Amino acid sequence: MDSKFSHKAWAQGFSGINYPLLADFHPKGAVAKAYGLWLDGPGIGDRATVMIGKDGKVLWAESVGPGGARVPGDLLAKAKELAQ
Hints:
Layout: H1 4-12, H2 30-34, E1 38-39, E2 44-45, E3 48-52, E4 58-63, H3 72-83
Antiparallel strand pairs: 1-2, 3-4
C-alpha cells in the first residue's frame, strides 16, 4: 500500500524496472481487499508481493506478514524468471 512515489523511488534503485508497479494508496486498501490481503483487525494490508501477467492473472504471490521483510534482489530475480 505504498504510494506511487515510494514505488518510483524503489524502482529507480534497480535501474531497469520498466514494468508498472501498482500503488494501493487510495482508496486505501481496495486492491489488497480484492486479493484477500487486507487485515481487518489492524486495518492494514498484509505485506505481500503479487506479480500479475499481461493477461491479468496472478503469476506469483508471496506474503511476509505485516512486519516481514522482502529481499528486493529476490523479487527482481522472480520477475525476470516469470518474464521468460
